[in-house]
Structures are given as C-alpha cells and as structure tokens.
C-alpha cells in the first residue's frame, strides 16, 4: 500500500469509527435498541461499500467494543461473537453489495446471516452452555440476540441503500 493510500485508508476508517462512536453515544440515551442497532448496521455496510473490506472489518470489530463502552453490550465475553456477526454482515455486503444488481441479495442474505450467526452462537450456545446465567439474565440476553437482530440488520441495510448512492455521488463530485 502506497503512503497516500495508507493515509487515505486510515483517515476514512477513522471517520467511520468516529461516526460509529458518536452515533452510538447519541442514540443510546433514546433507549431504543432498534434505532441504535439499525444505525450501527448502516454504518457497517456503508463503511465497507465506501472504503473497502479492510475498513469495514475494522469498524465491524470495534463496534461491539464501543457498544460495551456505552453500556449497550450485554457481557464482555459476547464481544467476539457479536464481532463475528458484524464480520459476516460486512463480508456479504462486500461481495454482493458492490454489484448494483445484487443489492437485494446483499440486504436479505446479510441480515439473515448476521441474525443466524448471533442467534446460534449466543442464544443457542453461549447463553445456555458457556455462560450458565440465571434464568432472568439469560432470557434478557437471548431476547437481545433474537429477531431484533434480523430487524436491525434489515433496517440498517435499507438505510445504507438510501444513503450510499448519495455518498458515492458526493465522493465523485456529482450534483
């Protein structure tokens, strides 16, 4: 990677990480995880679409750490599993979303894949097998990583499909 490309990559990735942190901080007090989750998923998708795979992966991996910092994330031990769900979303959008005719495939398969990874790894494995939490806490965490993850990934994808063309046009200097 040339020096100019490296600087551009660092600055672009930093902008998306900063946006992630600011928007998580701004939406968390609203108390609605659907809003925060949808915005986070939108940023994950847009970061990979605008800046490429390595930036998208960085943002995806840092997102659950930032969420834990703001008190959104449930347990520190779940951060790697949440990061894995984010990674799957970013990878699918990278491979499918950059092809205009595959936007709907990226939207649906990315949301479904992220949901399934989180549901299976957290609800069906980590909560009952690894964590062995009291029933009330297990129920709360299981609900956090159930259907709401599919909804926020779908909404984030829809928002990304609305915002990304405008960002791309602005980046190219179009009207």
Can you describe this structure?
The chain is an all-alpha fold and 175 residues long. 83% of the residues lie in helices and 0% in strands. It has seven helices and no strands. The protein has helices spanning 3-27, 33-51, 53-69, 79-97, 103-131, 135-144, 147-172. Helix 1 (3-27) packs antiparallel against helix 2 and helix 2 crosses helix 4. The radius of gyration is 16 Å and the shape is globular. 33% of the residues are buried. The model has no long low-confidence stretch (mean pLDDT 91).
Layout of helices and strands, plus pairs?
Blueprint lengths: L2 H25 L5 H19 L1 H17 L9 H19 L5 H29 L3 H10 L2 H26 L3
Helix pairs in contact: 1-2, 1-3, 2-3, 2-4, 2-7, 3-4, 4-5, 5-6, 5-7
Entry keywords:
83% helix; mainly alpha; 175 residues; globular
Task: State the low-pLDDT regions, or none.
Answer: none
Largest sheet: none
N-C termini distance: 31 Å
Oligomeric composition of the shown chains: single chain
Number of helices: 7
Q: What is the overall pLDDT average? A: 91
Shape: globular
How many β strands by DSSP?
A: 0
Which class do the helix and strand fractions yield? mainly alpha
- Using only CA atoms, what is the Rg? 16 Å
Spell out the helices and strands N to C: HHHHHHH
Beta-strand percent range: under 5%
Helical proportion? over 70%
What can be said about this structure in brief?
With 175 residues, the chain is mainly alpha-helical. The chain has helices at residues 3-27, 33-51, 53-69, 79-97, 103-131, 135-144, 147-172.
């Amino acid at each position: 990677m040339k020096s100019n490309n490296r600087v551009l990559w660092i600055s672009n990735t930093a902008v998306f990480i900063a946006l992630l942190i600011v928007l998580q901080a701004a939406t968390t007090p609203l108390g609605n995880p659907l809003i925060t989750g949808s915005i986070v998923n939108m940023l994950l998708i847009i970061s990979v679409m605008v800046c490429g795979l390595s930036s998208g992966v960085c943002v995806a991996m840092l997102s659950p750490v930032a969420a834990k910092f703001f008190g959104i994330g449930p347990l520190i031990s779940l951060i790697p599993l949440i990061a894995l769900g984010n990674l799957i979303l970013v990878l699918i959008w990278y491979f499918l979303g950059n092809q205009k005719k595959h936007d709907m495939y990226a939207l649906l398969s990315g949301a479904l894949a992220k949901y399934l990874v989180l549901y299976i790894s957290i609800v069906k494995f980590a909560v009952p097998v690894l964590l062995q939490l009291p029933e009330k806490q297990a129920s709360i965490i299981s609900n956090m990583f159930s259907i709401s993850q599919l909804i926020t990934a779908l909404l984030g994808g829809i928002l990304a499909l609305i915002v990304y063309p405008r960002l791309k046009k602005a980046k190219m200097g179009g009207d």
